[in-house]
């Protein structure tokens, strides 16, 4: 997956700015990556939010892109078009863009790949923490269920003993 990490489009590469969305598409920091062949790209906006852009349909899942009253493509669609026109991202068919001398562009610089892998690793670590939290909630709910079941069976129930058995002696009240 090729990724661009660009803070803005360079002055010499731009066509005239048409409106505020064009200006923001050019000036805001956005990272663009081809997700899969067929023209599906991911854009990480300046705010850190990630959106999927279907370049062939000129659609984006951002709030502007999903608003039917928005008259033109959002800044994320425009940014993908600008990156593609500048030869900085793979074409929708997955091939690297052609350089002006007719040869294929060199792969994206390694530092972009490292940043992207680092981003993915931090995302995985966040998800692992979320899963650990959910596992703890499931365990607590299972404990409550077991207590309710024991009480409903009419057995003698001692909360201190149950907590001690479940969580160890340090949990005694």
Give the structure's gist in a few sentences.
This protein is of the alpha+beta class and 173 residues long.
What does this structure look like?
Helix 1 (20-27) crosses helix 3. It is built from 5 helices and 5 strands; from the N terminus they run E-H-E-E-E-E-H-H-H-H. It has helices at 20-27, 63-66, 75-85, 110-152, 159-167, and strands at residues 3-6, 30-36, 40-44, 50-54, 59-60. The mean pLDDT is 79. The radius of gyration is 26 Å and the shape is elongated. Helices cover 43% and strands 13% of the residues. It has a 5-stranded antiparallel sheet with strand order 1-2-3-4-5. The protein is of the alpha+beta class.
Q: Strands across the major sheet, in which order?
A: 1-2-3-4-5
- Structural class comes to alpha+beta
Q: The biggest beta sheet, please?
A: 5 strands, antiparallel
Which stretches are poorly predicted, pLDDT < 50 over at least 5 residues?
none
Give the rounded overall mean pLDDT.
79
Global morphology: elongated
Order of helices and strands: EHEEEEHHHH
What percent of residues are in strands?
A: 5-15%
Number of helices: 5
Rg computed from alpha carbons, rounded to a whole number of angstroms: 26 Å
Percent helix, as a range, is 40-55%
Instruction: List how many beta strands DSSP finds.
Output: 5
Distance between the termini: 55 Å
């Amino acid at each position: 997956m090729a990724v661009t990490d660009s803070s803005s489009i360079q002055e010499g590469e731009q066509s005239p700015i048409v409106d505020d969305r064009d200006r923001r598409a050019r000036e805001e920091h956005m990272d663009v990556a081809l997700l899969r062949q067929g023209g599906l790209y991911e854009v990480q906006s300046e705010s850190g939010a990630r959106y999927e852009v279907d370049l062939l349909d000129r659609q984006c899942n951002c709030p502007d892109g999903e608003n039917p009253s928005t008259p033109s493509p959002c800044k994320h669609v425009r940014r993908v078009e600008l990156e593609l026109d500048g030869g900085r991202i793979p074409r929708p068919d997955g091939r690297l863009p052609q350089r002006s001398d007719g040869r294929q562009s060199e792969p994206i610089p390694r530092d972009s790949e490292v940043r992207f892998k680092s981003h993915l690793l931090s995302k995985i670590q966040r998800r692992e923490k979320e899963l650990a939290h959910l596992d703890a909630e499931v365990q607590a709910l299972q404990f409550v269920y077991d207590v309710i079941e024991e009480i409903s069976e009419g057995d003698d129930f001692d909360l201190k003993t149950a907590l001690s058995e479940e969580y160890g002696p340090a949990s005694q009240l």
